[in-house]
Amino acid sequence: MTSAKLQKNILIETLKKGFDFPVMSLKLFKNYAFSMDVHALNSCLAKMAIFISVFLLTFPYFCTFTQKLIFMNIIIIVITVIISILAFYNPVLFERLKFDPYAVKNRNESWRFGSYALVHAGWLHLLINMWVLYSFGDIVERTFRLNYGVKGMFYYLLFYVGGILFSVLFDFNKYKNNVYYSAVGASGAVSAVVFSSILIYPVGSIYLFPIPFSIPSWLFGILYLSYMIYMQKHGHDNVGHSAHFWGAVFGMGLTIILLPHVLSSFMIQMF
């Protein structure tokens, strides 16, 4: 067998194995998550972590071959949509994954710090979050890839996961003794992505239904943060405004750390 054919066969086998891991993970997750046994769920999450880790280790070998076809943002959206839909039709799964500060503190269910972003309150909630993530995540991931190459994909994944964790720290401290409080949705992480994209490309524009004209990205950022601060102090609805706010703060902060030139680029684009 020639060297070229051997390399081609190795690439094909790596691709197959790489895509098998997330599929196997989802199957394991589905089987265990329907159980009421906490130990079973912990086992499932551990096995998912192993499969995903191996998948990520094999990913760089064929990433250059598929770099125009596969993006971490798409992988995140697909996984979130699948698990959210499963949770729509299974209340047990929904209850297991939602963010519950009281359960985290008193029952050591620490997985809820991340799992809540995989479930949503309804179809509209899921649709809005995933559409916004699809719209704004592309520019953030592409910028990370442009600056860090293949590693940029993993920095984007860490960026997104960091937004999930950081955005609920305030609410955890505030509601850890409240047995009735819970939250779901990837809004905090999505907010991080949106404000990262504003820093990277402030001269862009955003359309908000039903406003018939576009709003400059930088103006949207100012208005959004002002609204979140106001509602966090004076709002009485059930929306997690603090998660949106702290997600935005995290997104801008980490973007400045990972892309130190982004502030000078922001000023050049603005002025």
Please give a structural write-up:
This protein is mainly α and 271 residues long. The protein has two domains: 1-70, no CATH class; 72-270, Up-down Bundle (Rhomboid-like fold), CATH 1.20.1540.10. It contains 13 helices and two strands; from the N terminus they run ααααααααααββααα. The protein has a two-stranded antiparallel ribbon with strand order 1-2. Strand 1 (205-206) and strand 2 (215-216) form a beta hairpin. Helix 3 crosses helix 4 (91-97) and helix 10 packs across helix 12. The longest helix is centred in the first third of the chain and has 31 residues, at 3-33. The termini are far apart. The relative contact order is 0.09. Mean pLDDT is 78; it is low at 14-26 and 62-69.
Features:
271 residues; mainly alpha; Rhomboid-like fold; 2 domains; 13 helices
SSE topology sketch:
Blueprint: H1 3-33, H2 38-66, H3 72-88, H4 91-97, H5 101-107, H6 112-115, H7 123-148, H8 151-166, H9 169-175, H10 187-200, E1 205-206, E2 215-216, H11 217-234, H12 241-258, H13 262-270
Antiparallel strand pairs: 1-2
Helix pairs in contact: 1-2, 3-4, 3-7, 7-8, 7-10, 8-10, 8-12, 10-12, 11-12
